[in-house]
Protein backbone atom coordinates (compact mmCIF):
# COMPACT_ATOMS: atom_id res chain seq x y z
CA UNK A 1 0.00 0.00 0.00
CA UNK A 2 1.55 3.27 -1.12
CA UNK A 3 0.38 6.73 -0.13
CA UNK A 4 0.00 9.39 -2.77
CA UNK A 5 2.55 12.18 -2.50
CA UNK A 6 0.82 15.52 -2.99
CA UNK A 7 3.68 17.62 -4.28
CA UNK A 8 3.24 21.36 -4.11
CA UNK A 9 2.55 23.07 -7.40
CA UNK A 10 3.62 26.55 -8.42
CA UNK A 11 1.34 29.47 -7.70
CA UNK A 12 2.20 31.65 -10.66
CA UNK A 13 2.00 35.40 -11.04
CA UNK A 14 0.03 35.05 -14.26
CA UNK A 15 -2.58 32.73 -12.79
CA UNK A 16 -5.82 33.51 -11.01
CA UNK A 17 -3.95 33.32 -7.69
CA UNK A 18 -2.45 36.73 -8.33
CA UNK A 19 -5.94 38.17 -7.94
CA UNK A 20 -5.84 36.74 -4.42
CA UNK A 21 -2.42 38.26 -3.75
CA UNK A 22 -0.33 35.11 -3.47
CA UNK A 23 2.63 33.80 -5.44
CA UNK A 24 5.06 30.92 -4.98
CA UNK A 25 7.88 29.39 -6.96
CA UNK A 26 10.39 26.61 -6.25
CA UNK A 27 13.96 27.52 -5.41
CA UNK A 28 16.18 26.30 -8.27
CA UNK A 29 13.84 23.51 -9.42
CA UNK A 30 13.75 22.04 -5.89
CA UNK A 31 10.12 21.14 -5.22
CA UNK A 32 10.84 20.84 -1.50
CA UNK A 33 11.98 24.46 -1.08
CA UNK A 34 9.83 27.41 -2.14
CA UNK A 35 9.84 31.19 -2.05
CA UNK A 36 6.44 32.81 -1.69
CA UNK A 37 4.90 36.22 -1.56
CA UNK A 38 1.72 37.16 0.28
CA UNK A 39 0.02 40.50 -0.15
CA UNK A 40 -2.14 41.99 2.57
CA UNK A 41 -5.87 41.59 2.08
CA UNK A 42 -7.82 44.47 0.60
CA UNK A 43 -9.62 46.69 3.13
CA UNK A 44 -7.44 45.41 5.98
CA UNK A 45 -4.65 47.11 7.93
CA UNK A 46 -2.23 44.98 5.90
CA UNK A 47 -3.55 46.10 2.49
CA UNK A 48 -0.58 46.93 0.27
CA UNK A 49 1.91 44.80 2.20
CA UNK A 50 4.14 42.47 0.19
CA UNK A 51 5.62 39.90 2.55
CA UNK A 52 8.09 37.25 1.47
CA UNK A 53 8.13 33.76 2.93
CA UNK A 54 10.14 30.55 2.70
CA UNK A 55 8.33 27.23 2.64
CA UNK A 56 10.31 24.04 3.17
CA UNK A 57 8.88 20.58 2.77
CA UNK A 58 10.56 17.40 3.94
CA UNK A 59 10.47 13.87 2.56
CA UNK A 60 7.70 13.27 5.11
CA UNK A 61 5.42 15.79 3.41
CA UNK A 62 1.78 14.76 3.51
CA UNK A 63 2.37 13.43 7.04
CA UNK A 64 3.84 16.59 8.56
CA UNK A 65 3.38 20.24 7.61
CA UNK A 66 6.03 22.24 5.81
CA UNK A 67 8.14 24.74 7.72
CA UNK A 68 6.90 28.23 6.88
CA UNK A 69 8.82 31.35 7.84
CA UNK A 70 8.46 34.99 6.92
CA UNK A 71 11.60 36.38 5.31
CA UNK A 72 10.05 39.81 5.78
CA UNK A 73 8.95 39.50 9.41
CA UNK A 74 5.86 41.60 10.18
CA UNK A 75 5.08 43.12 13.58
CA UNK A 76 2.10 40.87 14.36
CA UNK A 77 0.82 39.01 17.43
CA UNK A 78 0.80 35.69 15.58
CA UNK A 79 4.28 35.89 14.03
CA UNK A 80 7.38 35.08 16.07
CA UNK A 81 9.53 38.22 15.86
CA UNK A 82 12.80 36.23 16.00
CA UNK A 83 12.15 33.19 13.81
CA UNK A 84 9.49 34.60 11.49
CA UNK A 85 7.27 31.56 12.05
CA UNK A 86 3.52 32.23 11.80
CA UNK A 87 1.34 30.77 14.53
CA UNK A 88 -1.28 28.73 12.68
CA UNK A 89 -2.62 25.53 14.26
CA UNK A 90 -2.22 23.26 11.25
CA UNK A 91 1.39 24.39 10.72
CA UNK A 92 2.37 24.17 14.39
CA UNK A 93 0.74 20.87 15.27
CA UNK A 94 1.30 17.81 13.06
CA UNK A 95 -1.94 16.32 14.47
CA UNK A 96 -3.85 19.26 12.96
CA UNK A 97 -2.12 18.89 9.58
CA UNK A 98 -4.07 17.66 6.56
CA UNK A 99 -1.73 16.36 3.85
CA UNK A 100 -4.18 17.44 1.17
CA UNK A 101 -3.74 21.14 1.97
CA UNK A 102 -2.24 22.94 -0.99
CA UNK A 103 0.38 25.64 -1.16
CA UNK A 104 -2.34 28.14 -2.01
CA UNK A 105 -4.37 27.02 1.04
CA UNK A 106 -1.37 27.70 3.27
CA UNK A 107 -0.73 31.13 1.75
CA UNK A 108 -4.39 32.12 1.94
CA UNK A 109 -4.48 31.06 5.62
CA UNK A 110 -1.49 33.32 6.25
CA UNK A 111 -3.29 36.24 4.57
CA UNK A 112 -6.31 35.70 6.80
CA UNK A 113 -4.11 35.37 9.91
CA UNK A 114 -2.48 38.73 9.15
CA UNK A 115 -5.83 40.50 8.93
CA UNK A 116 -7.38 38.69 11.90
CA UNK A 117 -4.87 38.42 14.76
CA UNK A 118 -5.76 35.95 17.50
CA UNK A 119 -4.57 37.28 20.83
CA UNK A 120 -5.01 33.91 22.55
CA UNK A 121 -2.39 32.43 20.15
CA UNK A 122 0.06 35.32 20.45
CA UNK A 123 3.75 34.50 20.02
CA UNK A 124 4.75 38.17 19.78
CA UNK A 125 3.61 39.36 23.20
CA UNK A 126 4.62 42.96 22.57
CA UNK A 127 2.44 43.17 19.44
CA UNK A 128 -0.46 41.49 21.27
CA UNK A 129 -0.22 43.88 24.22
CA UNK A 130 -0.04 46.86 21.89
CA UNK A 131 -3.08 45.68 19.93
CA UNK A 132 -5.00 45.15 23.17
CA UNK A 133 -3.93 48.32 25.02
CA UNK A 134 -2.96 50.89 22.37
CA UNK A 135 -4.66 50.09 19.09
CA UNK A 136 -3.71 53.43 17.50
CA UNK A 137 0.00 52.75 18.04
CA UNK A 138 -0.48 49.18 16.77
CA UNK A 139 -2.12 50.55 13.61
CA UNK A 140 0.78 52.97 13.11
CA UNK A 141 3.22 50.06 13.48
CA UNK A 142 1.33 48.00 10.90
CA UNK A 143 1.15 50.94 8.49
CA UNK A 144 4.91 51.38 8.77
CA UNK A 145 5.44 47.63 8.25
CA UNK A 146 3.29 47.80 5.12
CA UNK A 147 5.26 50.76 3.75
CA UNK A 148 8.59 49.12 4.49
CA UNK A 149 7.51 45.78 2.98
CA UNK A 150 6.90 47.60 -0.29
CA UNK A 151 10.48 48.94 -0.26
CA UNK A 152 12.75 46.32 1.33
CA UNK A 153 15.78 48.55 0.83
CA UNK A 154 14.18 51.10 3.19
CA UNK A 155 16.11 52.48 6.13
CA UNK A 156 13.89 50.82 8.72
CA UNK A 157 14.90 47.33 7.64
CA UNK A 158 17.58 45.33 9.35
CA UNK A 159 18.78 42.01 8.02
CA UNK A 160 19.52 39.01 10.16
CA UNK A 161 22.14 37.33 7.96
CA UNK A 162 22.29 34.07 9.91
CA UNK A 163 18.55 33.46 9.37
CA UNK A 164 18.17 35.24 6.06
CA UNK A 165 15.26 37.23 7.51
CA UNK A 166 14.43 40.87 7.16
CA UNK A 167 13.02 42.29 10.36
CA UNK A 168 11.66 45.65 11.33
CA UNK A 169 13.38 46.90 14.44
CA UNK A 170 10.76 48.04 16.93
CA UNK A 171 13.08 50.77 18.23
CA UNK A 172 13.61 52.06 14.68
CA UNK A 173 9.88 52.05 13.93
CA UNK A 174 9.02 53.87 17.16
CA UNK A 175 11.71 56.46 16.37
CA UNK A 176 10.27 56.92 12.90
CA UNK A 177 6.74 57.29 14.25
CA UNK A 178 7.85 59.85 16.83
CA UNK A 179 9.63 61.92 14.17
CA UNK A 180 6.53 62.14 11.94
TrEMBL record:
**Pfam families, A to Z:** UQ_con (PF00179)
The answer to whether keyword Ligase applies is: no
- Active site residues per record: 87
Q: Where is the UBC core domain?
A: 1-151
What Gene3D superfamilies has UniProt attached to this entry? Ubiquitin Conjugating Enzyme (3.10.110.10)
The membrane spanning regions, by residue number, are none
Q: Kindly state which keywords UniProt assigns to this record, in alphabetical order.
A: ATP-binding, Nucleotide-binding, Transferase, Ubl conjugation pathway
- Give a GO molecular function annotation for the protein: transferase activity
Q: Supply the PANTHER family for this chain.
A: UBIQUITIN-CONJUGATING ENZYME E2
The similarity annotation says: Belongs to the ubiquitin-conjugating enzyme family.
Q: What is this protein called?
A: Ubiquitin conjugating enzyme E2 U
Q: What is the lineage of its organism?
A: Eukaryota, Metazoa, Chordata, Craniata, Vertebrata
